[in-house]
Each structure stands twice: as structure tokens, then as C-alpha cells.
Amino acid sequence: MNTRAWIVFLDESGVSLLPRIRRTYSPRGRTPLLRHRLNWKRASMAGALGHHSTDPHRGARLCFHLKPGSYDTTGLIEVLEQMKVFYSGERVVLVRDGLSAPWSRAMRAWVAEQDWLTLERLPAYAPELNPVELLWSSLKKRELANLAGDHLADVADATERGHSSPIRA
């Protein structure tokens, strides 16, 4: 069996136009104010972080997808189709979280038809095993902290800046 493949961790997360309130600094005596429109629009993000199993010199690859609303079977298939192009038909072992909600019967049937894709599952409620969770944590603590955008495009721009910037400790 050929074991040369990309090991890819997949995870989804949600964001909103409601700001994530975080501690900040301001001059003494000037309390910072955060003004927003109480807009409840939501978007969903999917991230797939890959490492090659036999060639570490190929580096890590991040495939990122953002869409208004939440993911359903069709939306997740779009993400996987994007990954197929992103990895140029190479073999991919996709490691996903243990929650089964977005993995419907139709999704499992679609995956079964893909010769480039193998699924592995993490235990349920084990976010410490998925490195994409660290990306979400970083984005929400830094780029999305105190962001009071008017449109989902503002959130999209902030997440784009966050995942394309160098990793910070």
C-alpha cells in the first residue's frame, strides 16, 4: 500500500457580526467604547491544515473556506471539492472531529466515491487533538477581537489577514 499522502485536519467554526469583547488598552481616564449595530448575521469557516506524511520539506498547507450562514452537506462537499483542487489530485487522509452532525448519509456516499480521499475520525469532544482549533482560537482572540464590522465582508477580511499572517506564539 502506498502511504504517501497528505494528512489533513479539518474543522469548522462560526463567526458573527456581534463583536467578541476582549480586554484592550487605552489612555488613562478614557474608557474605550465599542459601537456596533447588534447585527446577528453569522458566517461559517472551514479550515483544512495539511502536512505531507513522507516529505516534511513540502511544508504545511492551509485550505480556508468562509460562507454566510452555516454548513450543510452541500456546503461541506464544496469545501472538499475545493480541497481536491487544492491538493491537485494527490492522496489525502482527512482527519475530522468526532461530531457526526455535518456528516450525513449523502456526505458519506459522496466520500465513498472519491478515490483520492480517506476519512479518519478523532474522538468526540477532543479539540486538543485538532491543530485547526488553534487557528480558530488565534483568529478569535486577535483579528476578530473587538471587531465591530457592519458586513460579513469585514469579518472575512479580518480572517483572511489572520490566517495569512505568520504564526504567533
TrEMBL record:
Pfam families: DDE_3
Protein name, UniProt field: Transposase
Domain of life, source organism: Bacteria
InterPro entries the record matches: RNaseH_sf, Tc1-like_DDE_dom
Domain Tc1-like transposase DDE: 7-144
